[in-house]
Design goal:
The chain is an alpha/beta fold and 271 residues long. The chain contains eleven helices and nine strands. The strands form two sheets. The chain has a five-stranded mixed sheet with strand order 1-4-3-2-9, with helices on both faces. A four-stranded mixed sheet has the order 5-8-7-6. The longest helix is centred in the middle third of the chain and has 20 residues.
C-alpha cells in the first residue's frame, strides 16, 4: 500500500468522501509494510521510526499546514442544526472561538515536523477528524445501547458504562464528571468528539438548550467548565483525551492490519 491508499481507507472507514483540512499526506510513500502510529508524532518519533526500520509514521494530531483547518469548526453548526438550532445563530456564537484559535495557530511552528520528515525521507501523514468521527460514533452507539429511553440514568452509571470500553478501562486518566455530580440525572446523552477542538462555552450551552442533558467530551478547559456550571443547564463528562482518540485510532489500525500492514502503536494510544 502507499500513503494515498492508507488515507483513502481511513476516510472510508469514517464515512468521509473527502479529506478534511486537519488530515494530510505530508511526505508520500510507496510499498508501506510497517507503520509507527501515535497520537502526537514529531521529530523524535520520526527519528525513532527511521532507526527501527519503519516505512511510514502516522500522527493523529495534525502536522499539516492547511490554512483552512478552522473550517472544521463548522461541524458544530451542522450538528446543532440537526438538533433544531438555526445555523445563523450557532455561526455567530462560533466566531469568538474561531478568532481565539486563529490567534493561537498563527504563532505555531507549523512546519517543524514536515521539515524533519522531508530531511529523513520518511513517509508521514496525519489523521485527525476520521479517527475522531469513529470514536464519537463508537461511544455514542455504546451509550445508546445502555441507556436509550432510560430517563432515570445518572452520571455515575454513565461513567461506569464508559469504563466498559477498553480504552477508558486501561487509561491512566479515567472518565470524570466536570459539570454535575454522580447523582445528577443524565437526560439525553450526546457524544461530542469531532469538530477539530472544543467549541467554547457559548456553543456548549446551545447543545443543552437544544435538549441535550449530558455532553460526553474528550476534554474541556477549566474556564469553559466554570462557565457551563454557571449556566446551570446541563452536565459534562470528560471521557479522556488520549483514551478517546485511541478508540478511533485502534479501529483504523485494526483495519490496516487486515490489509497486511504491521502497525506499532505508541505516543498516547491506549489499547
Amino acid at each position: 500500500m502507499n500513503t494515498q491508499d492508507l488515507m483513502n481507507s481511513a476516510l472510508e472507514l469514517a464515512g468521509l468522501k473527502e479529506m478534511p483540512e486537519d488530515c494530510g499526506i505530508i511526505v508520500p510513500g510507496d510499498n508501506i509494510k510497517k507503520i509507527l502510529m501515535g497520537v502526537d508524532m514529531d521529530t523524535p518519533e520520526l527519528l525513532l521510526a527511521r532507526q527501527l526500520g519503519y516505512d511510514c509514521v502516522v500522527s493523529h494530531h495534525p502536522r499539516n499546514t492547511n490554512p483552512n483547518m478552522l473550517e472544521l469548526l463548522k461541524r458544530h453548526i451542522y450538528k446543532l442544526e440537526a438538533l433544531g438550532v438555526p445555523r445563523n445563530k450557532s455561526q455567530k456564537l462560533l466566531e469568538e472561538r474561531r478568532e481565539e484559535l486563529s490567534y493561537n495557530s498563527h504563532v505555531s511552528n507549523s512546519r517543524r515536523s514536515e521539515s524533519a520528515a522531508k530531511l529523513l525521507g520518511m513517509p508521514f501523514m496525519c489523521l485527525h477528524t476520521p479517527a475522531d468521527i469513529i470514536s464519537e460514533a463508537t461511544v455514542q452507539k455504546h451509550l445508546d445501547s445502555k441507556f436509550a429511553g432510560k430517563v432515570e440514568t445518572k452520571l455515575q452509571e454513565v461513567l461506569d458504562a464508559l469504563n466498559e470500553l477498553n480504552e477508558y478501562k486501561n487509561s491512566a486518566r479515567k472518565p470524570v464528571i466536570r459539570v454535575g455530580n454522580k447523582e445528577s440525572y443524565a437526560g439525553k446523552i450526546y457524544v461530542l468528539m469531532a469538530g477539530l477542538t472544543g467549541p467554547g462555552a457559548d456553543i456548549t450551552k446551545e447543545y443543552f438548550e437544544a435538549g441535550v442533558g449530558t455532553l460526553i467530551r474528550m476534554h474541556i478547559t477549566e474556564k469553559d467548565a466554570k462557565a457551563v456550571k454557571e449556566q446551570k443547564i446541563g452536565n459534562v463528562i470528560v471521557a479522556g483525551h488520549m483514551s478517546s482518540d485511541s478508540i478511533g485510532l485502534n479501529k483504523i489500525a485494526q483495519m490496516w492490519r487486515g490489509k497486511g500492514i504491521e502497525i506499532t502503536l505508541m505516543s498516547g494510544i491506549v489499547v
